[in-house]
Amino acid sequence: MKRTLLFVAVSLTAAGCSDSRVVVRANLAEGGEPVADMPVYLLPYDRVALMDSLEKASDTTEPTIPAELLQQLQRLNAAPPASGDSVARMAALQKRQIQARIDSIRGRRRAWRDEVFAPFDSLAKNKGAELGVPAVADTTDKTGRAAVPAEAGTYWVYASYVLPGSTLEWNIRVKMPEDQDSIVVPLSRANAKERPFY
Questions:
Q1: 159: helix, coil or strand?
Q2: pTM strictly above 0.85
């Protein structure tokens, strides 16, 4: 079954009630196999905005892998097996050289992220304390359901899901009004940010 057909329904129940909560139902496809063990966060702050602020404050930019380098590796991997020992050795050498360059950039990128985003946890904790609203989380069960309590206010529903070759990420702003029973926020690939693995 294709994971690319992921649909998630987030139901926000009435605010001001003791049982008011955000309910997430995640399925690979509408009415299909549920997505289990997916962490879901209800945050009183915009997580992506906090991350962006740390990135903007950095004196350096995130190392990126040149597109042409990835294309070269894809072409070599897609090419039919080379005939002749010398040609095969040359193709293997090219692959190793390109892969080594990509791995080197990945290593620098990991180091850059570790340094730039190191203050995130304390920044998020301080933001939650400032707002007087804690971040809450749950993990979807075998039926694809997760539920977290929520009072009236503005929140961000944050979740991510790993696909073959990429990750889907949601950071959806929602408002829990006091005079409404429920709000449904659908999360799908169409409104997710997709990040490729490279």
A1: strand
A2: no
